[in-house]
Amino acid sequence: MRAAVITFPGSNCDRDMAVAIEKISGTAPLRVWHGDAELPDGLDFIALPGGFSYGDYLRSGAMAANSPIMRSVVAAAERGVPVLGVCNGFQVLTEAGLLPGALMRNAGQTFVCRTVPLTVENGQSLFTSGYETGSTIRIPVAHHDGNYFADAETLDRIEGEGRVAFRYGETVNGSQRDIAGVLNEAGNVLGMMPHPERAIEDAHGNSDGRAMFESILASLAVA
Ligand SMILES: NC(=O)CC[C@H](N)C(=O)O
Questions:
Q1: Residues in the chain, pLDDT under 70
Q2: What is the pTM of this model?
Q3: What domains are there in the chain, each with its CATH number?
């Protein structure tokens, strides 16, 4: 798998993401700096990692969404390249307009850092085919701006189109309809607040995130 992990100033989960990709795919991803103008050709997968890009100033993800590299990320997403945004990466994807809605301050006004149950709402996407639809997995969250908001019409539409990939199995941050992860219309962009890269092996105490990376790999094998 020819993957790239984008690093912004303030990213802090880029290494974990790169390690997860390498351990599961067998190939180390390219590490790409936000200020680079272009992504290399022929990428199979792009990951936007978690963190506090630009110190979360303005709004989480808002400044990163306007980084030079994001023009290439948006163009790749529009060509159908799989793009996964985790936590701050999800925030960047909504700010870049690749996903609907916004991530607001958590309803409780506090940073939430714990492992939470997630229901797999759509086990058919290229990111989730390794999970059974309706199953419950446990994945860590760590954020203060994870409160997913979209208007009712948008929520009904994305629910109807099977674009809610994951839903929290308990109250976490005040997200509308407990939405934890959202797909774009074409199904090749996924944003999620929980961190699958923090749950890929026994040393993590939990390997429920592994199937996400295995699903992405499997989708490339059949593509
Ligand atoms: N782990 C993360 O990516 C943190 C995301 C984010 N900036 C927040 O706290 O909301």
A1: 223
A2: 0.97
A3: 3-222 (3.40.50.880)
